[in-house]
Protein 1
Amino acid sequence: MKMKLCGIFVLLVCCAGFCGAIRCYVCSTISTSNCADTFNPIGIVQEDNCVGCLKLKGKQVGIQLIDRSCLPLSSPVSGCTSGSQHGFDAAACHCSTDLCNSATCSTAIFTIIVIPLVMLLKYL
């Protein structure tokens, strides 16, 4: 009996890292038109073993960019953050359920996410 309980405990510990993993859509409007706000999941890559999903949406001078990705690190709270700087409007949304970044707008650390997005749009 003691050996059975020990075996179950070891099995649970080994599976703990996999049980919390979720799937996220991974795409960008730079390369995939289906990734836009009028999201169409056909042909969109799904990545497994994510801790959270992210959707970034930015717009400057009429050019809109949307990026959906898998987060390897968790955020303490799901939700969205938005802001505007130098004519660039951006929103970053974090969620933690399977394929949740398909929503129109799905929290990430805003400055770490938005700064590279601003730089990318600057060179478009």
Protein 2
Amino acid sequence: MDFLLLIVLLLVLFVPYILMMRKQSAARKTVEFFQASLTPGARVVTAGGFHATVVAVRETELDVEIAPGVTATVERTAVIRPKSDAAVSTPAADTTASEDYPPLNEDGHDAQGDAQGGAQR
């Protein structure tokens, strides 16, 4: 009886651990494959949150352009994912600024005189 309880307890503890390790291993392999396949011109996101374009590829480092004319050297492992352009918001598509907030005049106040369009405190 005690032996059966021990086996059930071990299964309850180790089965979730093994399943999590498999998922984490698959995710790590996907990132490693992505990092190994980087080429100049690829748009990426670094671990620091920079959205950049790969300019040059070396064995362990990449030169990335983070702004026009601004190039930085990062470790290949610092690139965590490709940049998806679907999440980028354009001013023409973003209508929340004009609908939810009153327009500001040239000194940064709205029609009621609140600074930056916020409520008075």
